[in-house]
Design a protein that fits this description.
By secondary structure, this protein is mostly helical. It contains 21 helices and two strands. Keywords: Cell inner membrane, Cell membrane, Ion transport, Membrane, Metal-binding, Potassium, Potassium transport, Transmembrane, Transmembrane helix, Transport.
Length: 483
């Protein structure tokens, strides 16, 4: 059976982490002396009380975490964090309903970046920082952050990591998971700090630099401005570079930088597909912009690179309005939404490693037709992919497409136009952020969506962030059986 006391203990401890996050934002609010001091003070009290209560309920628990407990605790952690994350928005009256507040918070923690707020520039600095801070913590995973911070926090952390990590193949720097988590967080922090420094050198204010750097490193996409006029050409190139880097497998990135061998990245089949997709899609869109929108060469290259990288890494930041581009470019951006960056990064989507595996399976199928008796292994970077991983790949792809089909159909039935319905589904399931369509453009908020659609989107964000199976397995009858 489910170890309820252990769940209470874990979620209670994690709520203390969220309380600390509220305290940081309270400090920002006090620093700017704005009206969001009270909402954050109340949020600190409520979350700390809830955390203390949960810890009491979980006292003297058995610290042994089963695989079933791991899946449940990871899903519940993200839901509970999002529920308490709504407090500053609701107490301060910055969002009109719980539905909107939950949507905004889930979008933040899952690094989707889709916003329900029409004009973010009217929000106080503390709330803006909270939106950025949510996605930065959610970038590598809430529980993964806890493993790095509290390695002896609970038994079975490997199972928890498996339930939250992205991608079908896990690479490790160190045999101990806690040490591995710390090094990955060092890489993450270094990328964030380097991005902050670069943006400040490009002329951005410190507050904007910090917020946009957190959005970039986490591939989140929440902006602190209602327009993109602050994105000068220099800023666009900086954000493009750091978005691209954040879409690379962090473990592989650490190995290549520490050993000073860039060839390590180029030898990776996944990184080669990622780079090829970025360059190919950007070249096509740049050509379209010059041909049909009369862009000069440099702006066309800059804008196409920025948006292709933003969409494929699931960041979702915008420096132009793709709604004004030729509709064929929407198809290219939708493909980028679907594919996503490398596994082990902060990005969402299908992941390039699965794309590589799928291409190799297709190639082998053609060869098998010509040589029926041949034994054809699937190898990625010289490592054989077992049959079980191939079955999981096809199950994941099928589940992904079925979810897209069902949710797109549901939204079309609600009266949302076809293009918006499809790209909203791809955007939320891939944790991308912007949508492409006639009713809701890439630069617009999602506030006009019906409440039912917002709840569907919130669920899709969670399912996409936890890579489908971690959430869906909880709803299977087998999960709740005794044995």
């Amino acid at each position: 059976m489910i170890n309820l006391k252990l769940l209470y203990k874990i979620i209670g401890s994690l709520l203390f982490i969220e309380t600390t996050m509220f305290l940081v934002c309270l400090g920002v609010a006090i620093g700017y002396e704005e009206e969001d001091i009270f909402p954050f003070a109340c949020s600190v009290i409520i979350s700390a009380t809830a955390g203390f209560t949960m810890r009491l309920l979980g006292r003297k628990c058995d610290n042994s975490l089963s695989r079933r407990d791991a899946y449940l605790v990871v899903t519940l952690t993200w839901v509970v964090f999002s529920l308490f994350g709504t407090l500053p928005f609701l107490i301060g009256g910055y969002l009109p309903s719980f539905t909107d507040a939950f949507f905004e918070t889930m979008s933040g923690f899952t690094t989707t970046g889709a916003s329900i707020i029409d004009d973010v520039s009217t929000l106080p600095h503390g709330i803006l920082f909270w939106r950025s801070f949510m996605q930065w913590i959610g970038g590598l995973g809430i529980v993964f952050f806890t493993i790095a911070l509290l390695p002896s926090f609970v038994g079975g952390s490997v199972k928890v990591f498996a339930a939250e990590a992205t991608g079908p193949i896990k690479t490790k720097l160190h045999p101990r998971l806690s040490t591995n988590a710390k090094w990955i967080w060092v890489v993450y922090l270094f990328i964030t700090l380097l991005c902050i420094g670069s943006l400040m050198l490009a002329g951005m204010t410190p507050f904007r630099s910090i917020n946009y750097s957190m959005a970039t490193a986490a591939t989140g996409g929440f902006a602190v401005d209602s327009d993109y006029s602050v994105f000068t050409p220099a800023v666009q190139y900086i954000l493009t570079f750091f978005c691209f880097v954040s879409g690379v497998n962090f473990t592989l990135l650490y190995i290549s930088v520490s050993k000073r061998k860039l060839s390590t990245l180029l030898k990776s089949a996944e990184c080669r597909l990622y780079l090829s997709m970025v360059l190919g899609c950007a070249a096509f869109i740049a050509f379209e912009l010059m041909w049909k929108n009369n862009y000069a060469l440099e702006p066309a290259v800059r804008s196409s690179l920025f948006h292709v990288v933003s969409f494929i890494t699931s960041t979702g930041l915008l420096a132009d309005d793709p709604a004004k581009w030729a509709h064929v470019t929407w198809v290219v951006l939708a493909v980028c939404m679907f594919l996503g960056p490398c596994s082990g990064s902060t990005g969402g989507g299908f992941k390039c490693i699965r794309g590589v595996m799928l291409l190799k399976v297709i190639k082998n199928e053609f060869r098998q037709m010509l040589h029926p008796n041949a034994v054809l292994p699937v190898k990625i970077d010289g490592v054989n992919v077992p049959q079980s991983k191939r079955v999981t790949l096809l199950a994941f792809l099928t589940s992904y497409l079925i979810l897209c089909l069902i949710c797109s159909f549901s939204m079309i039935a609600m009266g949302i136009d076809n293009t918006n319905a499809i790209t909203i589904t791809l955007s939320t399931l891939g944790n991308v952020g912007p949508t492409l369509g006639l009713e809701i453009g890439p630069t617009m908020s999602w506030s006009i969506l019906p409440d039912t659609a917002k709840w569907i989107c919130s669920v899709l964000m969670l399912i996409g962030r936890l890579e489908i199976f971690t959430v869906l397995v909880i709803f299977t009858p087998q999960f709740w059986k005794e044995n």
